[in-house]
Amino acid sequence: MIVSESELRNFTEQVFKQMGCPSQDAVLAADVLLRSDLRGIDSHGVARLSGYVRLWEKKRINPKPEIKIVHETATTATVDGDSGLGLVVAPFAMDVAIAKAEKYGSGWVSVRNSNHFGIAGYHALKAVAKDMIGFAMTNASPLVAPTFTTERLLGTNPMCYAFPAGKYPPLIVDMATSAAANGKLEIAQRSGKEIPEGWVQTSAGAVSTDPHALKQGGSLLPLGSDREHGSHKGFGLSATVDILSSVLSGANYGPWVPPFVAFIDPLSDLPGQGIGHFLGAMRVDGFRPVDEFKQHLDNWISRFKSAKPVHAEQPVIIPGEPEYEAEQERRVNGIPLVDAVVDDMNILAERFGIEKLRAYTA
Amino acid sequence: MIVSESELRNFTEQVFKQMGCPSQDAVLAADVLLRSDLRGIDSHGVARLSGYVRLWEKKRINPKPEIKIVHETATTATVDGDSGLGLVVAPFAMDVAIAKAEKYGSGWVSVRNSNHFGIAGYHALKAVAKDMIGFAMTNASPLVAPTFTTERLLGTNPMCYAFPAGKYPPLIVDMATSAAANGKLEIAQRSGKEIPEGWVQTSAGAVSTDPHALKQGGSLLPLGSDREHGSHKGFGLSATVDILSSVLSGANYGPWVPPFVAFIDPLSDLPGQGIGHFLGAMRVDGFRPVDEFKQHLDNWISRFKSAKPVHAEQPVIIPGEPEYEAEQERRVNGIPLVDAVVDDMNILAERFGIEKLRAYTA
Questions:
Q1: What is the 3-state secondary structure (H, E, C) of A189-222?
Q2: How confident is the model at residue A191, as a pLDDT?
């Protein structure tokens, strides 16, 4: 089913309003989810809407949070999200970072007591719109085992860096620090296919090509897959995200990060509050004139686009370009939703007494 | 041959003085190299001393640089290294970052017109000593091909994040953004062994297990090794390092980064000056009291140290711990040097008329 942007946006806003979010927050939360669907990152958009609703039903999401700065210097701050939607808490925190950068050149905010914040790229791109370099990270439900271990101690903990270019779209690196995301396992499960070695291990730490290994007590592997190929680096990056997001802010870290799925309860004796994010903004003109920077970043991108491909039919991919192209296309032609997501949305429509999604007609 | 720290330090200082470095710079540059040898990162220590000398002979290193800030805001700055040793330029830049952090909570410095800066960890740890979080990155000679391409457009571009702990040593992630470092190929070359798939590709972009493939026109692969295992993420991280270090400062980037080896001349029509670094410092107490942070980081480390290992004889490795242990051991027992490095040092001794290194006797 293909749905227009405005139809899907309107539907999503209504669901958040029904959860009790103030109108402005519902509009913002829907904007974050829609941006993910528009950019072709289907796993992090409205596909997660029912997940947020279930967390709210369990009272693990507060629809009317009092988000506030609890500690700060000129360029740093800790924000408490009051158990709100990460989709609302993270934009608040990024606005704090940007305001500090406007005054002092850079701004850095660590966030506690939040929930999942959608795609990291949404938040980093807010800085890019102001000719700043944007940084966004978050920790997440533990699914990844550190190198040499069998315990799920880390989330897929994404890191995102975004840079404003001139004639090209922003260059944006937005990546999980695991070898593969959970969504890729789900696709293989549906199609009954094996997965490559290096994505998951069994509960005993053995190599596995079974897409069900994770559900059977196994774990995802850090970027690098095994020690020989640098999995200790993926582990180190994931640790960095966890510490900047949560040890620094007072959120939960490691195995204590509350799961996104509502049917698994958080552990007891938590060392912090909610999940954590880390957001930053740095003014380009704090280093050199914006025009000069953009001209050189354009030159960088041009040179890399001309890189000799291994196979002529698969040219190099500049980070952020596929997502930018998806966004241009989907704004015009609508957003495709898989059946499972449409079913979820129909259940939400009934649950809240709102009109079902209608297919897009050009 | 095993050499005492003081013997090796003294020798290295003399070589830098013979290059014409002011005494204070020679002491500092030797300190950066020695720290690498002490920490067991033998590839980045005195093993590179003759390489710096050869660059100086080619007039690509200025032994008496006027290092200066050329652009700044309260918390950001661009530093011009005046073609100096990165071993001297980077500590200058990190001091600027730390001074800004002391005043405003954080400080960020992009550096142009520099040379190789040794181990990233040295610089990041300067911030840790002040109860700050340290960041250090640099670009480097192009050896790595972006995903789907056969061209060497990026260096092994390391990134480093360092955090102060309480009862444990600092947690420090210091990693090349390639799947494997060049040094690992050299070890395999010497022992005549094949290397694992995923470290290098041939000049045509084919999979190779030949440790000589890089010398024969091939390239190193980004962390992740191939697209299926996330090499686009390694590419994205390396791009991030390149942009923060050089597009931001006005240094050279991508294929234009001047090679560390003196026998390869830099390309013509360079878009910038020298190589680039990016250094940062963020006060922990800009976010929460230092004691609280350290207590929770200790808790994080304790929990990860207790992670169930796949094999009982190989426990989890906390980032930075092996290097810390090497440092404690080598300060007492001396630093082992392989024959090739001893030969290099003897040549330097003759070249500059200084006394040859003597073996350590306890």
A1: HHHCCCCCCCCEECCCCCEECCCCCCCCCCEECE
A2: 85
With an 8 Å Cβ cutoff, are A171 and B296 in contact?
no
At A102-148, the pLDDT tens digits run 999 999 999 999 999 999 999 999 999 999 999 999 999 999 999 99
Establish if A314 belongs to a structural domain.
no
Which residues in chain B are contacts of A232 at CB distance < 8 A?
Answer: 175, 317, 319
Instruction: Say if the Cβ atoms of A248 and B284 lie within 8 Å.
Output: yes
**How many Cβ atoms are within 10 Å of A112's Cβ, its own excluded?**
26
Residue A71 distance to chain B (closest CA, Å): 6
Is B55 inside any structural domain?
Answer: yes
Taking the C-alpha atoms of residue B282 and residue B101, their distance in angstroms, rounded to an integer, is 6
Full domain range(s) for residue B130: 65-179+221-286
User: Which one of B147, B233, B319 has the shortest CB-CB distance to A239?
Assistant: B319
B356 exposure class (CB count in 10 Å sphere: 0-12, 13-18, 19+): exposed
Residue B362 has pLDDT above 80, yes or no: no
CATH number for A275: 3.30.1370.60
Question: Which residues from chain A sit within 8 angstroms of residue B282, using beta carbons?
Answer: 76, 108
Strand ranges, E, within A139-272: 159-163, 171-175, 200-201, 207-208, 219-220
Residue A57 Cα to chain centre, angstroms: 22
> What does the alpha-carbon distance between residue A160 and residue A257 come to, in Å, rounded to a whole number?
20
- Which residues lie across from A175 on neighbouring strands? A159
Q: Is A231 on the interface with B (CB under 8 A)?
A: no
Q: At what angle do helices B49-57 and B339-352 cross, to 10 degrees?
A: 40
Residue with tokens 């003085």: B17
Closest CA to A120 of A152, A84, A95, A91: A91
Residue A149, strand partner residues: B309
Asked whether residue A319 is domain-assigned, the answer is no
A68 burial type by CB count under 10 A (0-12 exposed, 13-18 middle, 19+ buried):
exposed
| Count of domains for chain B | 2
Averaged pLDDT, A346-353: 97
Q: Considering the domain boundaries, does residue A301 fall inside one?
A: yes
Both A28 and A1 in a single domain? yes
Residue A362 has pLDDT above 70, yes or no: no
CA pair distance B2, B11, nearest whole angstrom: 14
The helix (run of H) or strand (run of E) holding residue B127 is: helix B120-128
Q: Is A183 on the interface with B (CB under 8 A)?
A: no
How many other C-beta atoms can be found within 10 angstroms of the C-beta atom of residue A27? Answer: 15
Which run of H or E residues covers position B136? strand B132-138
User: Do the strands A335-336 and A275-283 form a parallel or antiparallel pair, or are they unpaired?
Assistant: unpaired
In angstroms, the CA A79 to CA B286 distance is 12
| Alpha-carbon span A155 to A239, nearest angstrom | 9
